[in-house]
Write a structure and sequence with these properties.
This protein has 4 domains: about 55-65 and about 340-415, conserved putative lor/sdh protein from methanococcus maripaludis s2 fold (Beta Barrel); about 70-85 and about 250-325, Efflux pump adaptor protein, beta barrel domain (Elongation Factor Tu (Ef-tu), domain 3); about 85-115 and about 210-245, Beta Barrel (OB fold (Dihydrolipoamide Acetyltransferase, E2P)); about 120-205. It has 4 helices and 25 strands. The protein has helices at about 1-10, 25-50, 120-160, 165-205, and strands at about 55-60, 60, 70-80, 85-90, 95-100, 105, 110-115, 210, 215-220, 230, 240, 245, 250-260, 270-275, 285-295, 300-310, 320-325, 340-345, 350, 355-360, 370-375, 375-380, 385-390, 395-400, 410-415. Strands 3-13-16-15-14-17 form a 6-stranded antiparallel β-barrel. Strands 8-7-5-10-11 form a 5-stranded mixed beta sheet, with no helix packed on it. A hairpin with a 6-residue loop joins strand 20 (about 355-360) and strand 21 (about 370-375).
């Protein structure tokens, strides 16, 4: 029995209270938690500091405004075109005998550009002249017969009155005279027709000579001696349709496609500043000629014609050109030495510490950083702001910079 009682006591749960933890162990646990929090905060700070800020950007464009008020209200691109350009061809089909032009050659109005083989035209002309000679010879023969018939009728008229010849004989002489008069009229008309045939054959001979329709410069030579040319395409690749192409360089102008949303800013006679892509430092004064009253449905644009006020051999057809439509024409004293600024969207200009600043993207694409610059601003128009200093043309500026963006922060341009 005692043994069973001992066993039961061993199975009894001990209800003694656990001793309180020591103060040292508590501080150790608390230190571990604080250290973990500090390490997490440090890691977050390092990661957030190394991540680049995504920003929207734009490119600063050069403008002709040097603080004088000649602000550009719209920029567009187009091409130089010629209002007078012609591919000169012969009026007839024939074989080229000689080509007298080369590319780049200046020609005057009426100058011979090429000649065709004139054998057929010369033969036709010779035939027409022979027919004219025959018609004139016939006139002479009928004229001689008519003179004799008139004299015979006059003589018989007197004899009839004297009743020395019969009346029938006299009437026969009169009829012969009148018939010869009719033959003479017909012969003269035949001669006139032959003369017109000669004139037409002369035109055929002249058509073998190809002349320039106006003064200009040859920009293309299309035919060579021995080739067949025709004013109409005969199919295949063996018949040329032209001798060469000439351009009147005095008729050069610019055609620009302006978006429908911005065509309201353009007006006739509006001053324009044109810049050729080949000569970016050359500002050409120009003027709007007309706004073509039709739109391109596919591109949603309206064509604008711009007249160039300067004529220069450097300007050639199909050159790319950028035009700036100005609020007003530059003053007479403004020239190439006038100060020029850049044009940026208004969203690129921010206010920091009471002044206007612009953040410029500096460095490479992989390590781009924001560079804060103080700027001097000019006029504003059409959502654009003129910067007179602080930013150079072609630099990339940040649009709507965040308030916490600082000089030297890493940035990455957003996808367009």
């Amino acid at each position: 029995m005692n043994t069973k009682a001992d066993l039961l006591r061993e199975l009894r749960i001990d209800r003694q209270p656990t001793p309180p933890p020591s103060r040292r162990g508590l501080w150790i646990g608390l230190g571990i938690v604080v250290a973990a929090l500090l390490l997490a905060a440090l890691a977050w700070a390092l990661l957030s500091g190394g991540r680049a800020i995504e920003v929207r950007t734009a490119t600063a464009a050069a403008t002709g405004d040097g603080g004088s008020g000649t602000t550009s209200v719209l920029d567009a691109s187009g091409y130089v075109v010629a209002r007078r350009m012609a591919t000169v061809s012969a009026k007839i089909t024939g074989r080229v005998r000689e080509v007298l032009i080369e590319e780049g050659m200046a020609v005057e109005e009426g100058q011979v550009m090429a000649t065709l083989d004139p054998v057929d035209a010369d033969a036709q002309n010779a035939l027409a002249r022979a027919q004219l000679g025959a018609a004139r010879s016939q006139i002479a023969g009928v004229q001689a017969q008519l003179s004799e018939a008139e004299a015979n009728a006059t003589r018989l008229s007197g004899l009839v009155r004297q009743q020395l010849v019969s009346r029938a004989q006299y009437d026969q002489a009169v009829a012969q005279r009148d018939a010869l008069r009719a033959q003479l009229t017909t012969a003269r008309r035949n001669a006139q027709v032959a003369s017109e045939s000669v004139r037409i054959s002369d035109i055929g001979v002249d058509n073998t000579v190809v002349r320039a329709p106006f003064a200009g410069v040859v920009v293309a030579k299309a035919a060579q001696p021995g080739e067949i040319v025709s004013p109409l395409s005969a199919g295949g690749g063996f018949t040329r349709t032209g001798i060469g192409t000439i351009v009147d360089m005095d008729s050069l102008e610019v055609e620009v496609d302006v978006g429908e949303a911005y065509i309201g800013r353009v007006q006739a006679k509006m001053p324009v500043e044109a810049t050729l892509n080949a000569y970016p430092d050359w500002k050409i004064p120009a003027e709007v000629i007309a706004i073509i009253p039709t739109a391109d449905r596919g591109k949603a644009t309206v064509k604008v014609r711009v007249a160039l006020k300067e004529k220069d051999p450097r300007i050639v057809p199909d050159m790319g050109v950028t035009v700036s439509f100005l609020e007003r024409a530059p003053d007479a004293g403004e020239g190439d030495d006038a100060p020029r600024g850049v044009r940026v969207p208004e969203a690129a200009v921010a206010t920091r510490d009471g002044g206007d600043v612009v953040f410029v993207v500096a460095g490479s694409d992989d390590e781009a950083v924001a560079e804060r610059r103080g700027v001097s601003t000019g006029g504003a128009s059409g959502g654009q702001r003129i910067l007179l200093s602080g930013v150079a043309p072609g630099e990339t500026v940040i649009l709507d910079p965040p308030r916490d963006l600082a000089d030297g922060d890493r940035v990455t341009p957003a996808s367009p």
